[in-house]
Amino acid sequence: MAEQAQPAANQNYRRKRKHSFWDISFNVFNYSIISIIAFVCIFPFLNTFANAFSSSHAIQSGKVVLWPVEFQLDAMRSVFWDNNVIRALFVTIFVTVVGTTLNMVLTIMTAYPLSRRDLVGRKYFMNYMIFTMMFSGGLIPGYLLIKYLGMLNTLWALIIPGAVSAFNVIIMKSFFQNMPEELREAAVMDGCGNIRYMLRIVLPLSGAVMATIGLFYAVGHWNSYMNAIILIDNSDLFTLQVRLRNILLLSQMDTSLEVMQQQGKLQVIEESLKASTAIFATVPILIVYPFLQKYFVKGSFLGSVKG
């Protein structure tokens, strides 16, 4: 018996060893591919960051790749001295804060009634919203509508047209539907109305999906570009992304900074100034994201469990 069990044990050992070898090889391959993709994605940001804080001589010599060479802050100071960029920053903050607040209020007010199975015409409203996701009025009709409403060259043109996203409403509606029906029944028995139930019970339990949807809206407003280009002609109302575009493509900067460069008081080349502006426009949203990341992942999955 012992002699028969020995070959079987050896065979199982070889099988486990072989299986372990292929597991290790597969993991090594996966980690290698993921590392390469991650490096390709993060390389432009690292290179931009390095150019923003490297000296003009190092950039012109081609020494800058992934980290700053001959560290300096002149380019970043130039961005903070540019009145146009600072004004655009405050415009973007206003649009992001006000727009996201309005988006969340309207999304919640739309998603909660649609999540109630006793809502009359619920399927009709849902089909109507899905239709708007597949078909849009187009650029020119949208522009004419904004013009007819008198919102051209106003910040409301960047806020009102996208006040509600059908995709985000569907995610939030699905999240609300996943809540136990017993909660509402208990609240009704205690004399809680619909609005009070939503404010006191539903919303406090929906922190994950609200953070997710809020992040979607905030990033969308912060990166808003095409609407600002098309609907805003007043340079005082340009958003940060439009200013960044003007600096990157048209090399437009504050006149006072141009004078300082011509006088030799500011030793900053164009590449370093562009990189600093890109970092200036990107870092604020990167600072906010880590605090919402756990809610972002959780809310995305919970909101997609049930339609």
Automatic annotation (TrEMBL):
CDD domains with a match to the protein in the record: TM_PBP2 (cd06261)
Entry-linked Pfam families: BPD_transp_1 (PF00528)
GO biological process: transmembrane transport
Keyword DNA damage recorded: no
Domain of life: Bacteria
ABC transmembrane type-1 domain ranges (all copies): 89-292
Subcellular location field: Cell membrane
Gene Ontology CC annotation, any one: plasma membrane
InterPro entries in alphabetical order: MetI-like, MetI-like_sf
Membrane-traversing stretches: 21-46, 85-112, 124-149, 155-176, 197-219, 275-292
Similarity comment: Belongs to the binding-protein-dependent transport system permease family.
Identification of the protein by name: ABC transporter permease protein YtcP
Gene: ytcP
